[in-house]
Amino acid sequence: MEKIERITASLEQSPVDWQELLSECITSFGCSTGTLHFLETDTDILKLQAQIGIPEFLMPKVSKIPIGKGMAGIAAERQEPVELCNLQTDTSGIARPAAKETKVEGSIAVPMMFNGALYGTLGIAKPVPYDFTEEEKNNLMAIGEAIARTLA
């Protein structure tokens, strides 16, 4: 719970430093890479708000993501966490082919929900194969809800 409180405390700043919040989230979960996408008003597009560790050549592919495409888009569509133990060997089709260029393996994307509404997605990843625990998933969902509450 301390992890969540430390991360969500940065939401009390005005304006919120989204890059710093994402950095704190990545560090707290022992990850190396992450993205924070906000849902564009009146669209089905997730727009990149902050990122850490995404190669420059992938920025055009991750800057705007349609709901239903890739891990972030599927997490938004399903309104539940989407996880891959090893993105590099995944054959489910959830991860887009270019995602392998991030060189990450254990990955998760969670929707940022508040009062039943979607506000965006939070994604983090490790450079090794990894299955996130139920507690970690619940903590990430709580962080996503806190972010969404700030955006509401």
Task: Provide an overview of this structure.
The protein is of the alpha+beta class and 152 residues long. The protein has one domain (2-151): GAF domain (Beta-Lactamase, 2-Layer Sandwich). It is 33% helix and 25% strand. The chain is built from five helices and six strands; from the N terminus they run H-H-E-E-H-E-H-E-E-E-H. The chain has helices spanning 2-9, 18-28, 59-62, 70-78, 134-151, and strands at residues 33-39, 45-52, 64-66, 82-84, 107-114, 117-125. The protein has a six-stranded antiparallel beta sheet with strand order 3-2-1-6-5-4, with helices on both faces. The longest helix has 18 residues, at 134-151. The protein is globular. The model has no long low-confidence stretch (mean pLDDT 89).
What does the secondary structure layout of this molecule look like, with pairings?
Layout: H1 2-9, H2 18-28, E1 33-39, E2 45-52, H3 59-62, E3 64-66, H4 70-78, E4 82-84, E5 107-114, E6 117-125, H5 134-151
Antiparallel strand pairs: 1-2, 1-6, 2-3, 4-5, 5-6
Helix pairs in contact: 1-2, 1-5
InterPro entries: GAF, GAF-like_dom_sf
Domain GAF: 19-151
Protein name: GAF domain-containing protein
